[in-house]
Specification:
This protein is of the alpha+beta class. It folds into 2 domains: 194 residues, Jelly Rolls (Sandwich); 56 residues, Homeodomain-like (Arc Repressor Mutant, subunit A). Strand 8 and strand 9 form a beta hairpin. Helix 2 crosses helix 4 and helix 7 crosses helix 8.
């Protein structure tokens, strides 16, 4: 069974590409994995009857998140990765060999692979995993934007990530949130504004969640951006708050690193740049609701237009800002 939602061509950053797939045909499975992940050799132990693989996958430009379910034990072998990849079992275990490491992945421990090396993975039967692929150039560009200078790749990510505590646990929840949206055809992930924000959050979140040679620089103190550069960002937000700005985009407007932008906003504006952007979007949403015809416009449509990924959180933030719910504002116009 294959159910493809043709929202965009694979690799496009405009809209997500989504697929729901299940098959007992190894050749079909290989084609799907090649399309969304890598050319892979698939092995099934002798006597292991009942092979099947179910895949739910979303591709947001350079980011691919899939939930893979294995009915029987199966091995995957990739000659050479061209991306960064994290496998996080949700049920059962996986055994992996990569770059001189032999590791075991469980629901509490994710397995991390880097580009340029072969990979061998054995999955338990009746197991499942979240498989996160990030194009090499995208993750390295994200890190360079955060730091404000070029980097020498590949990034030396560790072979495993602890999914039970701290940033690793938080990053795991973020990936799961994205995967959960696959079930809803009316999901906000179909909005380019939301898709871009989620993609950037997953990439920067991984960089902040695991140790690597740039981690101390990434998390250490940063010099504040000068007021004139911060003003350029404030003006850009005021001019086009509906744009799918990521924090890296705003840093590019300022001509500085993400960390300097954040410190500059803290010092000169008294707010984080994305929080400032959210408040501007809340203001625009408020203005839209006040002018809207409640017979023709919904709160959800206004929230989508101004880039809010979660209606419940939008309503909560709106009430804090304006002292009433979005629906109350809309009804008052009728």
């Amino acid at each position: 069974m294959v159910d493809v939602i043709p929202t965009a061509a694979p690799g496009s950053s405009e809209m997500p590409d989504i697929l729901h797939f299940s098959s007992a045909d190894i050749d079909q499975v290989r084609l799907v994995l090649n399309r969304f992940y890598y050319p892979v050799a698939i092995g099934v132990p002798e006597g292991a009857d009942g092979f099947s693989l179910a895949v739910e996958v979303i591709q947001l430009g350079p980011l691919t998140v899939g939930h893979l379910t294995f009915a029987t034990p199966v091995t995957f072998q990739v000659a050479e990765l061209d991306a960064y990849h994290v496998s996080m079992p949700t049920t059962g275990r996986l055994h992996a060999r990569h770059a001189g490491h032999e590791v075991v992945g469980t629901p509490s421990t994710g397995v991390v692979f880097g580009p340029g090396k072969p990979v061998w993975v054995a999955h338990d039967g009746n197991s499942a995993e979240l498989a996160v692929k990030i194009d090499r150039d995208a993750l390295e560009r994200e890190l360079a934007a955060l730091l404000g200078h070029p980097i020498e790749g590949p990034i030396d990510l560790p072979p495993v990530i602890d999914l039970t505590v701290g940033p690793g646990q938080s990053w795991n929840r973020l990936v799961r949130l994205l995967r959960d949206e696959l079930e809803y055809k009316q999901s906000l992930i179909y909005q380019p504004l939301i898709a871009e924000q989620l993609r950037s959050s997953v990439l920067s979140g991984l960089l902040l969640s695991v140790p690597h040679r740039y981690h101390d620089e990434l998390t250490g103190p940063a010099a504040a951006g000068p007021p004139r550069a911060i003003r350029r960002v404030v003006d850009a937000i005021h001019d086009e708050p509906e744009q799918p700005f990521s924090v890296a985009d705003l840093a590019a407007v300022a001509g500085m690193s993400v960390r300097s932008l954040q410190e500059g906003f803290r010092r000169h504006v008294g707010s984080a740049p994305m929080a400032y952007l959210q408040q501007e979007r809340l203001l625009r949403a408020h203005e839209s609701l006040r002018r809207a015809d409640p017979a023709r416009v919904t709160v959800a449509a206004v929230a989508h237009r101004w880039g809010f990924a979660h209606l419940g959180r939008f309503a909560s933030a709106y009430r804090i800002r304006f002292g009433e719910s979005p629906s109350e504002t809309l009804r008052a116009t009728g």
